Amino acid sequence: MPLSFLGEGESGTVVWVRAGRGLTGKLLSMGISPGARVRVLKSGPGPLLIEIGQTRMAISRGVAMKVVVRREG
Amino acid sequence: MADPKMIKVALAGNPNVGKSVIFNNLTGAHQHVGNWPGKTIDKKEGFHRFDDRTLYIMDLPGTYSLTAMSVEEVIARDYIIYERPDVVVNVVDAMNLERNLYLTLQLKELGANVVIALNKMDLIKKAGMRIDVRKLEEELGVPVVPTIAPKRRGMRELVAEVVRSAEKHRSSRSSEEPLSYGEAEKFIKELQEIASSIEGVRKLFNTRWVVIKILEGDSDVMRKLSEVEGGEELVRAGEEIRKRMSGELGDPEVVIADARYARIRKVISKAVGVLKRLPASDLLDKVLLDRIFGIPIFLVILWWWFQMAFIGSTPFCDLLGDGFAMLGEALSGLTGNTVMDYFLFGEYGLIQGLGAVLSFVPLIMFLYFILSLLEDSGYMARVAFVMDRIMRKVGLSGRAIVPMIMGFGCNVPAVYATRVIPDEKDRLIAILTNPLMLCGARLVFFSAIAAAFFGIYAGDVLLSLYLLGIFLAFMVALALRRTVFREAVSPFILEFPAYQKPSFRVAFVRMWDRGSMYLRKALGVILIGLLIIGALTVTDASTFTFTTDPENSLIASLGRSLQPIFSPLHWSWRLVVAMVFGFVAKEIVLGASAMLYGVGEEEIASRMAEMYSPVDMYGYMTFILIYMPCIVTVAAIRQETGSWKWTSFSVVYGLILAYLVNLVVVTLGHLILGW
After folding, report:
1. Probe site for chain A from B385, B390, B420 (most A CB atoms < 10 A)
2. N or C: more exposed end of chain A, with fewer CB within 10 A?
3. Domain architecture of chain A: domains with CATH
4. What is the mean pLDDT of residues B4-9?
5. Exposure pattern of B251-275 as b/e (b: 16+ CB <10 Å)?
6. Which chain B residues are Cβ-neighbours of A41 within 8 angstroms?
7. Which residues of A touch B250 (CB under 8 A)?
8. Using 50, 70 and 90 to split pLDDT, how confident is the model at B176?
9. Contacts of B98 in chain A (CB under 8 A)
């Protein structure tokens, strides 16, 4: 499922990134790559606030649609 | 390199890792800030002396990787490929090893001689984590020097390591085992064989690197190859192999990144003890990013920021303004020629004009200082997140909020501040709408007039002008999105640096960096502008000889000839001239009106109150708020857009919009109030 469907406080593991050329590279270089564990800290209207390892970042909903994750407990 | 005592060093690293602090630590005053050719990205270079060696240090733009996705990345990587620095110092955020080492692996792949500056080691301690530096060196195969940049810790060790590495690199170019890409390896090997057989490619690039880039689909590398003999052939073979790889393993870009991260995770598992989170960040983010309180908290911080900047800078601003006025008076009579004298030292001569511009420097410095503190603390990145929802609705990027805020101080640094917006179109919209932010210069005129015309309501009138500016900026942004830039605001990914206590030293250095840039630009442009207007003011319109009576000057006749255009707005020719003066610097509108009415600046407001109705004056204020940006801002817009077309657009739309708003205010005002 896409990362943007994870609820607040939920975690998942990135399975694949399926965006256009430039965006894929950007996501990968920022650590959003297969195997990375992501936690959604905030998912309100507007961009998502996520945490990967020690890094926090905001990503817009459109971008989050392109990251495929597996939900984890 | 020709001089054996000279070591060429490049600083590379992710954004927010403290790279520029290390650069400033090393180079101190021996640095030069310019632009990369044809780009609006800062190019910083400097020197550092160590024993009998000189380190020539280039601060590369902050990047997450070395692909061709952004201008910054292409600049950084071209520098390493073509300039071949002796050492690349890779500044790494110890708290974010996984993501930071992604760049490290790519630097190594490119064949750079890497030394890691492992920064933010104080935070590691604070978080109760442990990094085994020796293990990290061993696993990565590069020297690692722990540093704490704001405290200058580790700088000597870093320099010593750079010198040692440079020497080792010169004596032997050891080739170690490259990173293995697992299943992708057979495709890489296949293409590499082809690449090695092409002499032109072999001579210019590291073949393994080129091959990996082709498989990643790097458009910039492929374009560069097409200019090399035999390169086209390699690209074609690459496309074919890429397709096969894609069918077997999936998107090659992801497969390759995956292998890099797998390697990084292995390094980290060996070198890093427990991974923990800083709990303070959690709590702060909960509050500062709150859906309901996030924006009010930001507004309070904003209010505090401006209070501090305006209150703190006022004595300095006054001192400078008065100082120049006294200087002008003291020097008058020096040339022995009345014309020259008036021109240089007169009330609207060169010296006084310079004073007017320079008196803004303290305000700008204060604004920058507090901005630097807020950035350093990690809050500014969050503001973009908080504001993004609202800004996006009107077609602006969340990151445009910082330039907008800067614009309340001065539009010139604000236009430069739009560099934080990565997308070109988003950035252009932010630049074009910025002059609508009511800057400190216009405030000088507005506060004087508002007090005289509106008494106790002066504050509300000022507030209404601020809001009108913001409202119009949103409208213009929307209109541009609907017409010229139809694309939606570009999607964003924005990293939040960990919160930290800001360092006054770092903030001061950054303030000085930015402030002095404003100063250099303003001085050049303003001199020319003042000379032209000065010449018009002291030349008699009929005899073309020197005059001290502005009523008969060329500028007055210009004002009179333009006046009919503005009569629907109920302007006299004096208001027209004052407006024209305002083009040089908008605070001059007040002084110019004073001069034209032959009274002092203190009395001008009450004098005008006798002559104009409040409605007409309010209309005039809206015009001054909106019409074309001042000359220094225009120069900044020209530089940052790189286009005369957009620069003229900003001037023209400002004038038209100002005229329309003024007309509406005056017409409706008289209709409703019946004056």
Report:
1. B385
2. C
3. 3-72 (2.30.30.90)
4. 88
5. bbbbbbbbbbbbbbbebbeebbeee
6. 285
7. 16
8. low
9. 31, 36, 52-54
Terminal C-alpha separation, chain A: 15
**Rounded alpha-carbon distances, angstroms, from residue B326 to B29, B34, B329, B660:** 32, 35, 5, 41
Q: Which residues of A touch B275 (CB under 8 A)?
A: 53-54
Residue ranges, comma separated, of all CATH 1.10.287.1770 domains in chain B are: 182-271
Interface pTM, i.e. ipTM? 0.88
pLDDT in tens, B421-447: 878 888 999 999 999 999 878 887 888
- A34-67: per-residue pLDDT in tens? 989 999 988 877 788 999 877 889 888 888 999 9
Q: Do A53 and B262 touch (CB under 8 A)?
A: no
> What pLDDT digit, counting tens, does each position of B614-664 carry?
899 999 999 999 998 888 899 889 988 989 999 999 999 999 999 999 999
Give the CATH H-level superfamily of domain B6-171. P-loop containing nucleotide triphosphate hydrolases (3.40.50.300)
Determine the Cα angle at B552 with ends B548 and B553, to 5°: 70
Q: Which CATH number fits domain B182-271: 1.20.140.10, 1.10.155.10, 1.10.287.1770, 3.30.420.250?
A: 1.10.287.1770
User: Least CB-CB distance to A62: which of B219, B254, B491?
Assistant: B491
Residue of chain B minimizing CA distance to A16: B254
CA-based nearest residue in chain A for residue B67: A25
